[in-house]
Amino acid sequence: MMLNIKDLHAKVEEKDILKGLSIEVKPGEVHAIMGPNGSGKSTMGNVLSGRPGYEATAGSVTFKGHDLLEMETEERAREGLFLAFQYPVEIPGVSNMEFLKAAVDAKRKHQGLDEISSVDFLKLARETCKRVNLDASFLKRGVNEGFSGGEKKRNEIMQMMLLEPDLCILDETDSGLDIDALQVVADGVNAMRDGKRSFLVVTHYQRLLDYIVPDYVHVLAGGRIVKSGDKSLALELEAKGYGWLENEVV
Ligand code: ADP
Ligand code: MG
Ligand code: MG
């Protein structure tokens, strides 16, 4: 099992948000999480990544057999969990190149490997820029310095490609995402689907799932999964909205 979330409860600012969330993700699977605004989708991602302020109060989460909730945030990343909406704060004087290399080296160290040489990394980073259609000059820019929406997405997918995580969580909160940026995300995910790597794709938009075809679709409402199905559930939600699920039991 890649990820096993069992009866997870979590609170933010003393408010109970997740109220018995359970999901099982096997290696290679893509799960889409949909649901009304405020239902706890982003909270789920934040709890899984170990963001400070998001406190699990009951239930369990195992990631590749490890107790995820016992792991430090950095440890989760080194172990292969990737959260695509997590941004480094702007760090003066640190370029994207340096930031990305440090992230790659931290993972390599965890795997018992030496640091990647600057020459090799530059080559790899340039190739990856090309794959996500970012100009190579991006590598010299400061971390998070003036990103456009589309560049943010490209940067996220580039990070994902460089880090080669085992589990990728994408939270598509940006309602202003244009079709090009959507396509970058979808192409990136599809290029990285390999039968082993798993994805949790949080999205409001059925449209994204036309490009990233999920194995399962779950509806998160009121802090729990109220319905699960295959990709046809996303179409049903698009047509019917979420109201009809109010009285559903899993
Ligand atoms: P979704 O992503 O499904 O729209 P969220 O997880 O963002 O939902 O939010 C779920 C609930 O938790 C909302 O009521 C929101 O106001 C609250 N919440 C989330 N993060 C915070 C926070 N950092 N501080 C206070 N309340 C929060
Ligand atoms: Mg929201
Ligand atoms: Mg959200």
UniProtKB/TrEMBL annotation:
A cellular component term, taken from the record's GO annotations: cytoplasm
Annotated ABC transporter domain residues: 3-247
Keywords: ATP-binding, Nucleotide-binding
The keyword Aminoacyl-tRNA synthetase belongs to this UniProt entry's keyword annotation: no
GO molecular function, one term: ATP binding
InterPro entries in UniProt: ABC_transporter-like_ATP-bd, FeS-cluster_ATPase_SufC, P-loop_NTPase
Family the UniProt entry places it in: Belongs to the ABC transporter superfamily. Ycf16 family.
Name by which UniProt lists this protein: Fe-S cluster assembly ATP-binding protein
Organism of origin: Halopseudomonas aestusnigri
